[in-house]
């Protein structure tokens, strides 16, 4: 937003296109916005201008408490109700499951789709840990972001990408044993309730995230959002 060639308001948006069986899906992460104090009444208009596209799923994954009422008024609804902190090494693991660090020259990368290979490679470049769990001849991609929780005292990993929470439960034991090599015991994933097959605890109303649009993001999918780009 400009006045007399001076920028008085900005909105930071992160767009990503995801290929799907029913056509491409476009997501827009509304990362942040700022309007000069004297133009603050125009802030809502600035945001609604961005929200015009009906084919885009918009997300707000870090809303400030003071903006929650405005989020609801703009049509945003929660797609998570809390977070699940778990100890993956405490989950059972099939002997046939193994976990590999994703690399461009890794033969098992060919078992994934083009879009999944892209997600793994791009997030590795952004400082995340991209893993492939091979289980019963099938490959399951995962992206984990290192972070510290509880006032920065405890190292952990946030689940940034997985196909589904069912896949996470299936591979958690193997991933947990893999993470133990680097001293990581704790992981966190967005959830709506306790997750079967994972040993941990559900924290309601923690890390709430909102969406507006045709399709909410899958739980466990925070790929290409501000969390990855700019950190927690």
Keywords:
alpha+beta; 36% strand; globular
Verbal overview:
The longest helix has 16 residues, at 165-180. Helices cover 20% and strands 36% of the residues. The protein has 232 residues and is an alpha+beta fold. The protein is globular and about 65 Å long. It has a seven-stranded mixed β-sheet. It has a five-stranded mixed β-sheet with strand order 3-4-5-14-6, with helices on one face. A two-stranded antiparallel ribbon has the order 1-2. It is built from five helices and 14 strands.
Radius of gyration: 19 Å
Estimate what percentage of residues fall within beta strands: 35-45%
Report the count of strand segments. Answer: 14
Shape: globular
> What can be said about the biggest beta sheet?
7 strands, mixed
Order of helices and strands: EEEEHEHEEEHEEEHEEEH
Count the DSSP helices. 5
Helix-and-strand structural type = alpha+beta
Distance between the termini: 27 Å
Work out the oligomeric state of the chains in this entry: single chain
Strand order of the largest sheet: 8-9-10-11-12-7-13
Average pLDDT works out at 91
Can you tell me the residue ranges where pLDDT is under 50 for at least 5 consecutive residues? Answer: none
Helix content: 10-25%
Give the helices and strands, then pairings.
Blueprint: E1 2-3, E2 6-7, E3 9-18, E4 25-35, H1 43-50, E5 56-60, H2 68-73, E6 77-78, E7 82-86, E8 98-101, H3 114-125, E9 129-135, E10 138-149, E11 154-162, H4 165-180, E12 186-191, E13 200-204, E14 210-212, H5 226-230
């Amino acid at each position: 937003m400009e006045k007399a060639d001076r920028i008085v308001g900005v909105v930071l948006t992160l767009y990503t296109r995801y290929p799907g069986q029913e056509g491409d899906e476009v997501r827009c992460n509304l990362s942040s916005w700022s309007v000069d104090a004297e133009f603050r009444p125009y802030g809502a208009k600035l945001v609604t201008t961005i929200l015009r596209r009906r084919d885009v799923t918009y997300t707000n994954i870090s809303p400030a408490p003071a903006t929650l009422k405005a989020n609801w008024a703009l049509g945003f609804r929660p797609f998570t109700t809390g977070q699940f902190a778990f100890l993956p090494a405490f989950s059972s693991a099939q002997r046939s499951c193994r976990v590999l660090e994703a690399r461009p020259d890794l033969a098992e990368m060919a078992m994934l789709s083009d879009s999944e290979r892209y997600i793994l490679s791009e997030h590795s470049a952004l400082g995340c840990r991209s893993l492939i769990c091979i289980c019963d001849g099938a490959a399951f991609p995962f992206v984990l972001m290192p972070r510290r929780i509880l006032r920065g005292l405890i190292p952990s990993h946030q689940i940034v990408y997985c196909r589904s929470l069912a896949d996470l439960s299936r591979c958690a034991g193997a991933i947990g044993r893999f993470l133990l090599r680097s001293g990581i015991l704790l992981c966190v994933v967005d959830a709506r309730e306790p997750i079967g097959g994972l040993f941990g605890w559900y924290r309601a109303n923690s890390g709430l995230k909102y969406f507006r649009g045709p399709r909410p993001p899958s739980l466990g999918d925070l790929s290409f959002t501000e969390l990855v780009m700019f950190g927690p």
